[in-house]
Amino acid sequence: MTRPIPSAALAAALMALAGGAWAQEVELIYLVDNSPDTVAVAEALAAAYMEQHPEVSIEVEQRPGGAEGDNLIKTRLATGEMADVFLYNAGSLFQALNPTETLEPLDDLPNMAGVLDGFKEVVTGTDGRVYGVPARAAMGGGIFYNVPIYEELGLEVPTTWEQFAANNEAIKAAGYVPVAQTYGETWTSQLFVLADYFNVQAEVPDFADRYTANEAKYADTPAAMRGFEHLQEGFEKGWWNEDFGAATFDDGLRMVAEGEAAHYPMLTFGLGGIQQNYPESINDVGFFAQPGPEGAPNGLTVWYLDGIYVPKGGENTEVAKDFANFAASQDACQVILDTIGATGPLLIEGCELPADVPRLVQDMLPYFEEGRTAPALEFLSPIKGPALEQITVEVGSGIRSAAEAAALYDQDVQKQAQQLGLEGW
Amino acid sequence: MTERRARRSPYPTWFFLPAAVVYGALFIVPTLASFWFSLTRWNLFEAEFIGLGNFRQFFREPFLVQGVVNTLIYGTLTSGLKTVLGLALAVLLTGRIWFRGTLRTLVFFPVLVSTIGVGFAFEAMMHPTRGVINVALEGIGIDGPHWLTNPSLALVSVALVDVWKGVGLATVIFMAGLVSIPQDYYEAARIDGATRWQQFRRVTVPLVRPATITVVTLSLISGLRYFELIWAMTGGGPGFSSDVIASVIYKQYQAGFYGLATAGNVILFGLIACIVLPLTWWFNRREVEL
After folding, report:
1. What are the tens digits of pLDDT across the range A198-247?
2. Side by side, which strands form the sheet with A56-63?
3. Which residues belong to any copy of the ABC transmembrane type-1 domain (chain B) (predicted)?
4. Selecting from 3.40.50.300, 2.60.120.380, 1.10.3720.10, 3.30.70.1450, what CATH number does the domain B61-289 have?
């Protein structure tokens, strides 16, 4: 025990009394994606849990991220080969797992009461039960920027796209790469589209509902199409780095941390990678929300990060649920803070951020404090087309125009909606 | 009576049973099941019958047309290059040259290496700015192309790596074909005053035909359904520019569109059958005519 936490200790004691099943040694497999900070947190959580429960040993198993990982998770769930407990996205990807049939409901966990409602909503199945506990802090999708470049050129943080474009021209003239793009890992290409959702809903408040009901399309909603147009503009104006087609996520973080590039559109969880690989540059990286059109409100698109889930029909379900319960405790929250630091607002009540958070998180907090946030579309609608990352690579590489790309994405979305069996498609 | 007994196999019929069970359970049953699932919207838990909806959807897939074209380009390009280079190498390696054994090993070696490993290694070597190929080209003053990230070059780059990796097998098949040609023909040709080229054109090429048929058929089938190397090197990208039918199908599985993906496999099965069956029939007919 690191610190005495009454509820967790009580729960553990109750479990120990009730659980004849786990008097002997139990081996748990915890499946997580292979991004460095996820693995670091998973290992630390497992170690902390094993310290409290010497009879349990937890092995952290890694899987690829992105579409490859989606495939693996779905196949393993469908074939009954899933690990005892696993980490996976919340929101639409969680819904695609068919949670009411494949996952254990977790709403009766003692620590569930302390989980923030905003997170519970995005891991709730169609039957109204909660199936996951938060694995990490919330994150924002927006633009990382290199503070020394901004200071050297006397630039200001942009709140409109026009200002952002003007900054990019100044940066280009000074010989830096204005915007890093990293299509070697295709998922990173989606940011300009997905992180624009605050601006979309500011202009079309009912977009998510009408989109889910097959009434609104990307191609015929100018506000929604703007994300694709931004990518086209960036390619045409030569804002990208030379090796954008092959560069990787880590290359992108390096470029913006070490001042090769001024901007990198990314989710704030990239902070973990910077901390691990470029720790000396951690306070050179700032963050702002993706700028919208002139005169519109300026705010941040928010992602609720992965949840921890327990599959139905596992051999060690009770122990796995107890581990999930531990992951929702303030103890676990502290472990996360100790391992990767504060990456954003935490989703467990009473878990406070330390005073000396990195610059990037500081830049993110005002949006939350002032209520200038909106969830990303994938948390408001179950439909996300699987080919978006290829389509955004095409637009960002000059292969397809924004208008054609939006129309193509609408077709991709239709397939997903039909597969999910939604009304009206 | 005696005549009938003579035609019968010396083994009892039930000897074939184990093989039939394995073949039936692992091949025939899944194949028939896939025809059924291709007609459903299937999420691995339940399948809803939707008729030919998946086939309609698959043919509407905007990347599919490109996928089919790319598959044909890839299949012909790799098959053609493997045949031509394989024959040339086989002629070289059956001739009297130094280090023949070592060279034979070198040519065959890539066949033994893991495809995914080859894919990742070449992906690193073909990196546009840091890859060994472009760094070397820069050293001699050439600005190397973006091998895998230029949409019009990506598929060709992968095909070249595939040829490098697969030509060893074609070479071995051709070598077997070449050594089985009796030397008498060459001797007769030389007495008639045939040049080296005439010997190759008039003796080697016609008599090595059975090997050619094997190489063309095998490499065409594998080229048409090829997947691993493309997936490891480009993932079908940039965008959809190096997608082939197999990678389009894989992405539908990945997205959880199991019925649609199965329909894609049925289409691929049909396409390969439509190309390879007439081809082998044509080859065999020509062989009889000779």
Report:
1. 999 999 999 999 999 999 999 999 999 999 999 999 999 999 999 999 99
2. A56-63, A26-33, A85-88, A307-309, A133-134
3. 68-279
4. 1.10.3720.10
